[in-house]
Amino acid sequence: MHCWKTINVKKEYGSNRLFTLAVIAGMGVFTTFYVFLTFIYTAPLSDRHFLYFILAIVAVYPLHKIFHFIPLMGSRKCLKFILRKQLGMIPGMTLHIKEPVAKTKFLLALLSPFILMNSVILLLSALFPAYIHYFAILLAYHCSLCLTDLIYIRHILRTPKHALIEETDTGFEILVPEAIS
């Protein structure tokens, strides 16, 4: 095996640019989703259960990280959870993979939070139309969190079919067998 390419989105794009893109994407998702749903549902909106909404906002980030873990359940021995403070006070979770993972499994791990959580939010917005404003905010926030994952997916889809993905300090390395290069 040899390294075909190293991907480090934060180094390539920069943290400020990624944050700006995430905010723009979140605002676009909120606007589109909210306007679309207000055309479909004419029921009056309710501000009841605001505490549940705040709890949901707080729970989105940890659930997002946990859903990355689900497709890698068989590889528990090579996974490492790290909790650390970001910006001096905000807890941040990272999941490190100690061994190379197949490209398809890694893509599934990147896609699972996007598919699962967004599906649940969309389903709940259809079931409870009086709270579509809450669900629009939740969906926008989660799509903003998924932006980096989607950028990594775009890069990984362009890699060779039988590639393995390994996480290092410099980013994700795409490993390919010698015969494929």
Automatic annotation (TrEMBL):
Pfam families: DUF3267. The chain crosses the membrane at residues 21-43, 49-67, 106-128, 134-153. Keywords: Membrane, Transmembrane, Transmembrane helix. It comes from the Bacteria. This is DUF3267 domain-containing protein. It comes from Metaplanococcus flavidus.
